[in-house]
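Researcher: If only I could read backbone structure tokens as easily as an amino acid sequence. Walk me, if you will, through where the backbone shape changes along the chain. I have put the entry right below:
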Amino acid sequence: MSNSAPNSGWLKACNILSYLFFTSSNLYAGLGGDSIRLGKPVQTYLTPAQWLFGVWSLINFLFLGLLVYQFTPRGGKAVTEQLGWRFPALFVLNSLYTTLFSLQGSRLLNFLAFLVLCLVAGMVSYLYGSLRTGSEPENWMDRYLVHLPFSLYHGFIVVVFFVAAFTVFGTDANTHKAGVVTKILVFITLFFLESTAAGYVFYGNGDIAGASVISLGLLAIFDEQRSSKFIHWSALCVILLMYSIFFVISFIAVLRAVAVAYQAQRSAIPLRSSDEEAAPLIH
């Protein structure tokens, strides 16, 4: 993509315009429209508590800061070189998905919304991967206005993707009891979310923000799912398992660092003694 001033100006203008669509669709889904719950018109056995969707407010606020930051030299470089035209395209796709899912429609309408969500997930993953494999943040604005919102966004989309999948292909918890197949699928999904959160923490330099969003998602599912004791307590067990794994791996890492430091100290002692023996008696 060309980084010329005209193209950069058009990109920044499109970012602002698409952000307005992004925010308006979120407000419509949360406060207006026909849906009772933001992004989930059908109650399933993976539906999280409503408070989880408050993450959208934080993401919207951080992206607003990014739109202001893009008019600085460093912010403009990050937007044009690292995000590009995929950034406003992501806003438009997300707006379409949120609007479709906020409507009390047929299975076909929900399926179309899910297809759009797949495009959103792919776009978010691309931008998230581009930032994670690119240069490290140079200042706090890079960290909190560029990298942080995409970490939160990516982690949130992981949770929303499975919630939407159960909305389209799963059973309605208000009209059907959870069968064996449903319980197995929910448990597998919970375990996958736990594994993904662990991957966020221990891959590369770690991504605490993304892992925290998925952890909140598991906690919200535990909070919401009370009609099935198996699903309710499975969500809690997965959360406890996740933090147990975090503790064990972190503890092993600390022990390994102590052992390496101890070995380095011991290997340094013979070197000092040999140097003293090899030193001449008369200077």
Remarks:
- The longest helix spans residues 229-278.
- Confidence is low (pLDDT under 50) at residues 1-6, 33-40.
- The CA atoms of residues 178 and 228 lie 7 Å apart.
